[in-house]
Amino acid sequence: MNLFGMTLGALQEQFAELGQPKFRARQTAEWMYQRGARTFGEMTNLSKELRQKLSAQHEILRPEEQARLDSADGLTTKLLLRFADGTAVETVLMRQPYGNSICISSQAGCNMGCKFCASTLHGMERDLTTGEMFAQALHIQDFLREEGSGVDTVVVMGSGEPLMNYEALLGFLHLMHEPYALGMGYRNFTISTSGIVPGIYRLMEEGIPVNLSISLHAPNDALRSELMPINRKYPLRDVVEAGRAYGERTKRRVTYEYILIDHLNDGEEHARELCSLLSGQLASVNLIPINPVVERNLLRPSPERIRHFETMLQSRHINVTVRREMGTDIDAACGQLRNRHMN
Fold it and tell me: Apex CA 310: angle with CA 101 and CA 300, to 5°?
């Protein structure tokens, strides 16, 4: 049985079956999650007999690093991690001025079908487990520890739709928060969704102050349905209303992601529609000049068009930023490294 990814309660049940006290389970959790132990032999405060028994009956399964790309400026690292069944996922580290931010995947691949995203090109392979999501964060935490630092913020924005893998996502958030794991505050997490309306309301009711990011990418239903097929199930107005409710209940500013695509969704009329849609909401807009995906044939607007779109939102009192680009020289956009290896 793989112990990695288990909560302390689940570990205590396993240790009880071995006739061991509860504190041995906590020691094991701390070895796995805080000190990066990959074998029971490393756990020197457990007896030799117990280590042998654990090795005979249990294992610590963590993914292998299949590929690693580092940007020329040293600020971005992209990893392809492969699990025991051969499933591979991407994880990205971004060294920001405010700390180390990581972007993890919640599914292997994605079936949302967004036209601008490389993650959907091969469809979805499967959901990830809580332990597999946690393993991505811990893999980066381990090598940051050697640098004398650690993970500061987490964005669940890699491949997959996290709110379609809800139970594993919630387990991941709780495990990352536990003091025997990484002990991270919930405010340091951002969940990105393509607009799964029931999942947004469900997350709102959990009572944990995680940040919410909603992929909007168009200011009207016709264009959004063209770019994001999920809009046919959860229309734009319902998505924005769910975002409004989330912000009001949690008092956390909701971020609306808006990919700018040249002469498709970056015109003046689009800016006016977007402002009308979000008026009066506790929210901000994050403009993302598209990172071109060869297979999609969608182009990045000129710097002038990007600035004009930003200025129009600012003039109508919409809180707006333009995403700082990182890792463009290593194809840091979601799905690109995984697709290259699959191809």
Answer: 75
Which range of 120-134, 226-240, 324-338 scores highest in mean pLDDT? It is 226-240
How would you class 179 by CB atoms within 10 Å of its CB: exposed for 0-12, middle for 13-18, buried for 19 or more? exposed
- CB-based burial label for 59 (10 Å; 0-12, 13-18, 19+): middle
Largest CA distance in the chain: 71
Q: Is 334 assigned a catalytic role?
A: yes
Q: How do the residues of the chain divide into helix, strand and coil, expressed in percent and rounded to 5? A: 40, 20, 40
| 268: annotated active-site residue | no
How confident is the prediction for the chain on average, in pLDDT? 93
Per-residue pLDDT at 338 exceeds 50? no
Within the chain, all domains assigned CATH 1.10.150.530 are found at 8-57
User: Which residue among the candidates 59, 90, 167, 248 is catalytic per the annotation?
Assistant: 90
Mean pLDDT of 130-155: 96
Whether residue 54 contacts residue 25, with contact meaning beta carbons closer than 8 Å, is answered with no
Strands 88-96 and 99-104, by their bridges, are: antiparallel
The CATH code of the domain at 64-342 is 3.20.20.70
Query: What is 8-57's CATH number?
Result: 1.10.150.530
Using the structure block, give the residue that is written with the tokens 């991505």: 136
Active-site annotation holder among 114, 117, 275, 334: 334
Under the banding of pLDDT at 50, 70 and 90, the label for residue 236 is: very high
- Counting beta carbons within 10 angstroms of the beta carbon of residue 66, is it exposed (0 to 12), middle (13 to 18) or buried (19 or more)? middle
- Which residue bears the tokens 């020289």? 329
CATH 3.20.20.70 segments of the chain = 64-342
Q: Can you give the length of the chain in residues?
A: 343
Query: Where would I find the H helices in 215-317?
Result: 221-227, 236-250, 268-278, 303-315
pTM of the model: 0.91
Q: Please give the backbone phi and psi of residue 303, each rounded to the nearest 5 degrees, phi first.
A: -55, -35
The rounded distance, in Å, linking the Cα atoms of 151 and 174 is 16
Which H or E element spans position 171? Answer: helix 166-177
> Is residue 166 a contact partner of residue 199, using CB atoms and an 8 Å limit?
yes
